[in-house]
Design brief:
The structure holds 2 protein chains of 2 kinds. Chain A is of the alpha/beta class. Chain A has 2 domains: 335 residues, Thiamin diphosphate (ThDP)-binding fold, Pyr/PP domains (Rossmann fold, 3-Layer(aba) Sandwich); 36 residues. Helices cover 47% and strands 9% of the residues of chain A. In chain A, helix 8 links the parallel strand 3 and strand 4. In chain A, helix 3 runs parallel beside helix 11 and helix 7 runs parallel beside helix 8. The relative contact order of chain A is 0.16. Chain B has 12 helices and 14 strands. The relative contact order of chain B is 0.12. Chain B is α/β, with parallel strands linked by helices. Chain B has a 7-stranded mixed beta sheet with strand order 3-2-4-5-7-6-12, with helices on both faces. Chain B has a 5-stranded mixed beta sheet with strand order 9-11-10-13-14, with helices on both faces. In chain B, helix 8 packs across helix 12. Classes of the chains: A alpha/beta, B alpha/beta. At the A-B interface, helix 7, helix 8 and helix 15 of A face helix 3, helix 4 and helix 5 of B.
């Protein structure tokens, strides 16, 4: 009973395949078996994580320079996101929160489009259907219902359990430890269980919901909640990209094959602030951050590759150069993002502009042009 | 030609919409085997199966939120909210997701969804079963809001709402569900969905109503005629967007307008209508636009609802005040 109520991780209940020291460890149920040679796969993860971290660091700096209104940092959560995203089949569909920059990266969403949202030039410039990656969702937990409904639709389309792994689809609902308190997340799990929907609930437990520690609202380990809804839950070391990849792969496979939902709790840590408006020094001790630095998701992969000879020195230099290039591209591109045209405020409220809104738009356009006339007559 | 109640007309309209488009999926509490608490979906699950008439868990946010996912997947969900007062748990999904996804996505995502809500009082129900939340949805850009008031309209409007590419809040006057029957010509060509309609021509005062109060307004017009007063009655039908052209045309002739709705008067649809009429027909007005509606109190216990709801006498009183101005 005490064990069940203990929300801290232990080796017995958390899947880990690569420890913080960068050593491979074995697990009775999971084995790292990527779809390409092992070292090549790990190098790929490393590159994804480094570039995602650079995107995050650059975006944070751009916010500090006043170029973004806000940025939600993912620092420390790279392994959870890259592992989860690289396990996807192309046809799988992902519903993100507002922090899944690493997943967006893997789904080929141009990072400039993420910046557009946080700069305020648009509210999400990518086409969800082109990338099988939904819009960022700010109201926490709301997207878990969308994912579940989408998965119900996939099921109605007959794209579950056909036996053809290139056709069968799974849907991913991303959310965090904070959102796990939301009614929507709990309702999503009720619906998913009820219809046996092909959805994977991927919870990044980064230990902090802005300033509120997870222990304040979560009294049993999060992954154990799944059992109450009627499907399996599993905790994975979210700072271990290998383990996250494998656990996610098996949950997605289960969903595609008609086995129903799974909840994955990726146990990780938000190294940075909640967003750039947050100041974590007001509510958490630096000791805690320092302890988690030792579990850094990128450092352990680098240690593993260097020690085992899985990557050459030139590989690391090449990735670093690529990251520099990405940083430059973001800094240069930020001013190229088109500023919104005032009259286009009225676009896409509806599929067609209703007459009354048309009138409002025309009135505003006339009002705006009256300034031009004044200017001209002066 | 078949004679149908409003409830049967909605049922027939839903059936036809499901026959016309196999992407139409009904979702809601008790809508399957039971046919809905008002029997609007009676027999549909039997004929279309459990995959298209989905009995959902009892969670309104869950129903609307999963409907969003289905719409993103290319379906056209038609959601039944069991009673008006139960829509609030879904309010966030409706206002922040359903209403805004098309806009947020720069038009890339469509959200063809109908949320059916039986609304209004007069059925002697316990609390939370008699509310009129239309202004809350009409106030939200991205949503369209319509209300039917009689069987023929109900039959066509539900089909038009389902075929429409934007999300539609579809309000059904529950106290008229099983009231009078009307002949429905299923071969007819319906008028546009987002249009108000003059139901009775008159020359002294324009009375604007929608949903359950249309019947009240028509009864008032009949009674007023007996006293030599000629009321023009307009069924607004569409609450967002409003179709004001017939209203302006009418008020310019009569110089007087009375709005009747069950919703609270404070910041209700009547306030918007009064503002627009005043802005546009100022020089034609002989009296300020008057509003008759529910008081700015919570909906009262059932045995007091007759004091709360606008009735024939309160409408006639407003008409008299307008004429006496």
């Amino acid at each position: 009973m005490t064990e069940f109520l203990d929300p801290s991780p232990s080796h017995t209940d958390m899947v880990q395949l690569l420890n913080p020291e960068g050593e491979r460890v074995s697990h009775p149920d999971f084995e790292f078996s990527p779809d390409r040679p092992e070292d090549e796969a790990v190098r790929g993860f490393y590159r994804d994580m480094v570039l995602t971290r650079r995107l995050d660091v650059e975006a944070t700096a751009l916010q500090r320079h006043g170029e973004l209104g806000l940025w939600a940092q993912l620092l420390g959560q790279e392994a959870a996101q890259i592992g989860a995203a690289r396990a996807l089949a192309p046809q799988d569909f992902v519903f993100p929160t507002y922090r899944e920059h690493g997943v967006a990266w893997c789904r080929d969403v141009d990072p400039m489009q993420l910046l557009g949202l946080f700069r305020g030039t648009d509210q999400g410039g990518w086409d969800p259907d082109e990338h099988n990656f939904g819009l960022y969702t700010i109201v926490i937990g709301a997207q878990t219902l969308h994912a579940t409904g989408y998965a119900m639709g996939v099921q109605m389309d007959g794209l579950v359990g056909t036996g053809d792994p290139t056709r069968d689809m799974a849907v991913v609902a991303h959310f965090g430890d904070g959102a796990s308190s939301q009614g929507d997340v709990n309702e999503a799990m009720v619906f998913a269980a009820s219809y046996n929907a092909p959805v994977v609930f991927f919870c990044q437990n980064n230990q902090w919901a802005i300033s509120e520690p997870v222990e304040q609202m979560v009294k049993v380990p999060l992954y154990k909640r799944a059992q109450g809804f009627g499907f399996p839950g599993i905790r994975v070391d979210g700072n271990d990209v290998l383990a996250t990849y494998e656990v996610m792969k098996s949950a997605l496979k289960r969903a595609r094959e008609g086995g129903g939902p799974t909840m994955i709790e990726a146990y990780t840590y938000r190294m940075g602030a909640h967003t750039t408006t947050d100041d974590p020094t007001r509510y958490r001790l630096s000791d805690e951050v320092e302890a988690w630095k030792l579990k850094d998701p990128i450092a352990r992969v680098e240690a593993y590759l260097r020690r085992g000879g899985g990557a050459s020195t030139s590989f690391f230099a090449k990735v670093e150069a690529e990251a520099d290039e990405l940083g430059e591209r973001l800094r240069a591109g930020i001013h190229a993002l088109p500023e919104p045209d005032p009259v286009r405020l009225f676009d896409n409220v509806y599929t067609e502009l209703p007459p009354e809104l048309q009138e409002q738009r025309d009135g505003y356009a006339a009002y705006l042009s009256s300034f031009d006339l004044e200017g001209a007559s002066r | 030609m078949t004679k149908m109640t409003l409830a049967k007309a909605l049922n027939a309209g839903l059936r036809r919409a499901m026959e016309d488009d196999d992407k139409v999926v009904l979702m809601g509490e008790d809508i399957g085997r039971l046919g809905g608490v008002f029997r609007i979906t009676d027999g549909l699950q039997k004929d279309f199966g459990e995959a298209r008439v989905v009995d959902t868990p009892l969670a309104e946010s869950g129903i609307v939120g999963t409907a969003v996912g289905l719409a993103l997947r290319g379906y056209r969900p038609v959601v039944e909210i069991q009673f008006d007062g139960f829509v609030y748990p879904a309010y966030d999904q409706i206002v922040s997701q359903v209403a805004k996804l098309h806009y947020r996505s720069g038009g890339r995502v469509a959200m063809p969804m109908v949320i059916r809500i039986p609304f209004g009082g007069g059925i002697g129900a316990v609390e939370h079963h008699s509310e009129s939340p239309e202004a809350q949805f009409a106030h939200t850009p991205g949503l369209k809001v319509v209300a039917c008031s009689e069987p023929v309209d109900a039959y066509w409007m539900i089909q038009q709402a389902i075929a429409h590419p934007d999300p539609v809040i579809f309000l059904e006057p529950k106290r008229l569900y099983h009231s009078t029957k009307a002949e429905i010509d299923v071969e007819a060509t319906p008028g546009p969905l987002f249009a108000s309609r003059v139901l009775r021509a008159g020359s002294d005062v324009t009375v604007l109503a929608y949903g359950p109060t249309v019947k009240t307004a028509l009864t008032a017009a009949e009674a007023a005629a007996g006293e030599g007063k000629s009321l023009e009655v307009i069924d607004l039908r569409t609450l967002s967007p409003l179709d004001m052209a017939p209203v302006y045309e009418s008020v310019r002739r009569t110089g007087r307008a009375v709005v009747v709705h069950e919703a609270h008067v404070n910041l209700g649809l009547g306030a918007e209508l009064a503002a627009r009429i005043t802005e546009t027909c100022f020089h034609s007005l002989e009296a300020p636009v008057l509003r008759v509606g529910g008081f700015d109190t919570p909906y009262p216990p059932a045995r007091a609802e007759e004091y709360f709801l606008p009735d024939l006498d309160r409408v006639l009183d407003a008409v008299d005040r307008s004429l006496a101005w």
